[in-house]
Amino acid sequence: MAFGALDLHSGSIAWRVCSAAKSYRAAVGASEDVLVVWESKERGGVDTVALSTTDGRELWRRSTAPSSSFAGDLAGGSAVPVLTDEEGDPFVIGIELASGAEAWRLAPGTLVLAVDNGVVVVATGAQGSMVGGDPSATPAVQGIDRATGAVVWTTSLRVDDQSGVGVQRGLAAVTDGVLAVPTGAAVTGIDLASGDVLWTSDQLDHPTGADGVFVGTPGNQRGLRAIDARRGATLWESDTVAVSYGDLLAVGGGVLVAQDNTTTSQSTVGIDLRSGDERWRTPVAVHGDPQLTAGDLAVLLWEGTLGVIATDDGTVAWTGTEPFNSSFMSGATANSATLFVSINSLPWGD
Questions:
Q1: pLDDT tens column, 306-345
Q2: Would you say the pTM of this structure is higher than 0.85?
Q3: 100 and 140 part of one domain
Q4: Residue 138 near residue 127, CB atoms below 8 Å
Q5: Who's near 20: CB < 8 A, 6+ residues apart?
Q6: Which domain range does residue 153 map to?
């Protein structure tokens, strides 16, 4: 088994696709029509593959670099940026979702920060231990048109990641029309439409954004901090909420959905994004870490188990154990109606 799809609201299986390749896999993102996934290759690097969300059939496949970057939502735009290794030094290209054709390309060393509707945000001259760009280039953050690759705005900020760690969250995040990006021992908010700098706040590593709030790690420290997307002001801090494996944060529906491991009986909790107060608490419905939110639901996953709960009160919608007869489920993504799961064909740690 390679990838599978389930009805987001009921858990019934929609389709499954198999592959003979021995590979690690990831479900990267989905629009209503196209699912984008990664498959590792024996010679290194990954293939970025598009599948139909209707039946899982392959639409196109492109070779991409090991550090292939993707950040953001596939909805609201025609092209997805990937870091291709098909010609010389890796460089970012915009690939038409429907056809897999190249729509535009950027110079080598350009780093993709975020994708939001019609804008792709990229950086040149980025530096930091977890950044794959070219720090010798002229520093800039640019918004480019997602359809054409044309530059919409430019600011001379240098992206500087001082987190010192690599996690499954990205370097930057978008919510409420604002981009939060690391700039040394600080995080800077940029207006996504104009490129104007809105604020600078204390370091916030690997932010995740939703509902006008950014949540991340407060500068090489344990715990979490939340800041207002429009003002950069700190809303709350916590050192008791546990992030998911891989440092994933499931935010949406006005809450952060997380596991609370501070009590004797593990619980899933909904933390109000703006106040930091506990909105609800429910016993763990399934052995799984919160992965993402989709509409008014949150998805929990751990190897062979899946669960979906409501973000407003933690009510369990459904649970499942090895729905695709594998304990190697490695990740998930969703659109408005369907949950997509990637399934490794190599054991963990190999």
A1: 999 999 999 999 999 999 998 888 889 999 999 999 998 7
A2: yes
A3: yes
A4: no
A5: none
A6: 65-239
